[in-house]
Amino acid sequence: MKIWQLLFDPRGMISRLSFALAAIFLVAIKITGDFALARLLFHRTWSLREYLFPHLAFLFDNLPDGWKFDAVLLLWAAPFAWIGLTLLVKRLRSARAPIPLILLFFVPVAKFFLFAILCVLPERVYEARTPVLPPPTRRWAPESSLASAGLAVFCSTAIGIGFSLLATERKGAYLSWLFLGLPFLMGFLATWIHGLARPRTLRQSFAAAYLSLAITGAILLSIAAEGVVCLQMAAPIALCEATLGAWIAHLLHRTSWKSCGGSSSAVAACVTLPLLALFEAGTNISPTEFAVTSQLSINAPPEIVWKHVISFHELPPPHEWIFRLGVAYPKRAEIDGRGVGALRHCIFSTGEFLEPVTVWDEPKRLAFDVVAQPDPLSELSPYRNLRPPHLHGYFNSHRGEFCLYRKNSGTLLLGTTWYSNRMEPQLYWKLWSDALIHRIHIRVLEQIKLEAETEIIHGFDSTRQSEDRLLGPQ
Predict the structure, then answer these.
(1) Which CATH superfamily is domain 290-471 in?
(2) What is the C-alpha to C-alpha distance for residues 445 and 296, in angstroms, rounded to an integer?
């Protein structure tokens, strides 16, 4: 077969050995090219962890030549994407697997499991009359649906508990393989074991996978390894990956792969996870800094609003469910001194933020750094004072600012927070972080709006009260 037909023509088939060798060779070329372009041409850093779950930091940086770097990388990646899809289609065809599985080529982490499985599945010859062979007998695989599901859930849950504790308690690492790879493997194993004795429906396969995740979460909660809030936040992405794993294992059984390579595919999937964990643990990448901005219109001039920006009174108890579950929320703000160098104290439900003022442009802009911060949440758990590792040093608030813009007779107030989150995948946790920070912003902005508009409506002079708050107790 000519090279161009092998790499660019999606017709035909390819053996598992040729598929593995071609993929490894092309991946090596692609990685070498990425590092060369990033470091030699654009003098930018590049990490192997980008291949597990791209951070897409270029979407958030403000470098003047950022678009050039992005364009060159996309042009370089385009032919490799086509070659990868071509090889994948040929390999799926040779294994008589569903062609739609090529969609996993674009799914982070799951694509590595698919690659490992396709490297061990044997080729299957198309014949007009293929004899139907009985599946091999496995004495340890019960035929009863209930017993089979119990065994599948037990094995999958044991894997989930073991790797979860290894990652969080021993390594203190919340990486992509934990939130993407482990749920995929759990869903795959639960479905694969459940279907060993006899074919199961897709609903039964998904039920075994989801039950494994649910029991794993319940056990982690019961042994004080995690709290309710973090388990809820991780649930959406874990369910998606477990669904993909269960779907692939279900297809394995439907296409009779269990009689010719099913066991090897399960072994390949089990080996892939620790390899991904070792690979990701050996790479380092600086967390991307993100910014969240919220705004609110206030029917008061900036001169009045400013006094309530630098400090505000006690806020009422929150009604949002996420704050009631334990996520930290602001309660009041105080300030010591005036001008640049003044120390702002933002009191949260879990502790105090210390914020030295870096810009004091009254009544237009107040900016500050964050030099100390409390825990981002108090875990909801049967145990008191639960403090899992992710409460320490994973979410970091760097700085913040308030900008006041005169708008007719009122004020447009903008609040911005710059932060980073070391939990992977960063873009997934960014969704949660942005939403929570926005809710915190709105809670503060609404309190400022209430105090400023109340001062205008009732016409009382709050200048003396504000001065008292600035001076503090004597």
Answers:
(1) START domain (3.30.530.20)
(2) 7
